[in-house]
C-alpha cells in the first residue's frame, strides 16, 4: 500500500519537476522508490512532429535503450502516437501487448523481449493543445501491485495540469527567444534602474555594453557610471525627470557617435515578482555595427551599390554630412555628392530621411554582426 505522504511527495515533485535540470529527476526517483520500478520514463510529443523531435525524459540509462529499440521496431509505423489508449487509464504489460496483435503491439513485444521486461505500466495524458505524454514504468521482476493503478490515476490527473503549464512555458520561452534574438540583432539591450541610478537588472546585451563599451559601466556599489562627467550629469538629470513623473515622455540621450551608442530612458511601469527591488526607470541601450565590412557588403548586395557607395550610404545613415563623409573618406565634396545621387537612384530614396528609413528598416538591421 502506497502511503499518503509518499503520494503527496510525488505530486509535489511532479509540480516542481519542470524547473529541475534534468527535468522531473526527483519525481522519477520517488516513483521508482514507491513502486519498485526499475525505470521510469516520460515521453512528450507534439502532434504531427517526427520522432526526432519527441522529448524523452528517462530515469537512468533508459533513454539510450529506448532510442535504439524505437528506431528498430516502432519507426516504420510510428507506434508512439497510439491515441487509442484511453487517456488517464493505466495499461498493464498484457494490455499493451494485446490480442490480436497489431503492428503497434508487435513492436511492443519486440521491445519487451529485447530488454527482458516482465512488468510495465503506461498511462497517456493529452494536453489541451493536442500535445500527448506517456508516463511509463518498467520492471524486470514480478508484476506491479494493484494499488499502483490508483496512484497512477491520481498522478495522471496532476500531470495533465503540469503538462499544460509546461507546454505554455515552453511556448513562451520559444517566443521570448525569437524576440530576444531580434532585439540582439538590432543591437538593443535593457537595464533597470532605481531612483539613485543603481543598476538592478539587465539583459546580456546591456551587460556587454556595461563591460565593454568604455562609455557606460557599473561601479563597485552598482551605480551606473559614465565615461565623462558631462554625460553622467545628463543621464542623472534625465533619470530624475523620468522618476519624478510616471507620465513623463521618454528621454533620449546620445552616448557615443563612434561607435554609435544611444539610450532611451522611460518610466518603469512593469512589475515582476522576480525582481529584488522595484525599478524606477528602464534604460534601453542601442549600438549599431554599421562600421563593419560585413554590413557594408550586405548593403551593397541588397541595393546593388558599389562598395564606395555602400560606405557613403552607411556614413550618411549615421548622421554625417556630405562634407564630413568627404573628409573622412578622402574625397572631394563634389565627388561625394555625385555618389549620394547615385545612391538615391539605386535605392529609390527621395532624400536622406528616406534613405535612413530604407536602410534602418531593411533586413540588414537584424543581420549577423561581426561585432
Automatic annotation (TrEMBL):
Matching SUPFAM superfamilies: C-terminal effector domain of the bipartite response regulators
Alphabetized Pfam families for the sequence: GerE
Transmembrane segments: none
Domain of life according to the entry: Bacteria
Protein name (database record): DNA-binding CsgD family transcriptional regulator
InterPro entries: Sig_transdc_resp-reg_C-effctor (IPR016032), Tscrpt_reg_LuxR_C (IPR000792), WH-like_DNA-bd_sf (IPR036388)
Any one GO molecular function term: DNA binding
A GO BP annotation: regulation of DNA-templated transcription
HTH luxR-type domain residues: 298-363
